[in-house]
Amino acid sequence: MVKFTARLATAEERDNWDALVTSNPSGGNMLQSASFAAVKSQHGWTPRFLVFESSEYITYNLVIEKRLPLLGALWYLIKGPDVADPAHVPAVLDACRDLIRTGRHNVFAVKVEPDIPADDDVDRLFHNAGLIKTFDLQPNDHTAILDTSPEPNQLLRNLHSRGRNAVRRAIREGVEVRRMEPTDENFRQMYQLMAHIEDRSAARLRSYEYYSRFWQNFADAGQGRLYFVYEDGEPAVGAFVINYGLKGTYKDGGSKPKRSQYGDSHLVQWQAITDLKEEFGIVEYDFCGTPPSDRLKDPTHQHHGLGLFKTSFTKTVTDFVGCYDLPLSAWKYRLWNAIGEKVARQIYWRRHHQPFY
């Protein structure tokens, strides 16, 4: 069995964090990035940069920490740990437990969320390691992922027919996709487009401050870009996409209802995909959120409409394992699970009008 040790990253490692994370076994995740850590540091969380080492490989993982009255700290390995094999997750958590004890970090539970496809064997493995399944937090715990490794013409042919036809028609009819500068004015227009989506779904937007900080951080790092399509002189479709290592992600999107340009939202995605492929050599593009694969055709699911759009590019939907908790203090975790988490989320929402996580 592989054994890991854990430590906090050095200053030099933190300075080179993104290069190290994207060298992880599965290529890292944008939510483990330095840019995202900086966002969360302004919204009630403390970033911790952890290094797990074994004789086989090293993996670099972001932890965000929330300190709570009476309980101590909750550690959230957001989209981690990034491991070469699901069987390594318990070993990484053993090392994490040792680090918490020896470093006296006073952590009552560790929340993990590895990008590992859901599987009954994996669930049993985690259960046997003392992990407790809990509710999922990130939109892309169920998601459509497009293989972008083929050359562009073949990649277009590989799209689902609905998406491919929409892209081709938009090109024929002269729809223009513009890459926009990361300015406050453009960000505010993007946020307004996202509000239109909220009108048509059960989604709840975070504050403009949160999104603008997120977008600016990734844009400043050379990892994020904004696209618009205009209609009648105003933005009609918007998308903010991210390149992180060899992965592209459709992070945020919005559009006006009742538009006349057919295929405009499809063409935005196609432009982003081909740009990221040409400039960064991405090998996959994550559409960042669909219903679970077994509920794609369920019209009552809150993301049904988004799922229809995203699976018009690829029918492949990946269900990841989602979130599991590792209790480190039995009584504190029972208190947290029974009432503490619910109360913390309610208080945080009343104070900040933002989700706790």
UniProtKB/TrEMBL annotation:
The keyword Transferase applies. SUPFAM superfamilies: Acyl-CoA N-acyltransferases (Nat) (SSF55729). Gene3D superfamilies: 3.40.630.30. Residues 162-289 form the BioF2-like acetyltransferase domain. Keywords: Acyltransferase, Cell shape, Cell wall biogenesis/degradation, Peptidoglycan synthesis, Transferase. Belongs to the FemABX family. Pfam families: Acetyltransf_6, FemAB. It comes from the Bacteria. This is Lipid II:glycine glycyltransferase FemX. It comes from Arthrobacter flavus.
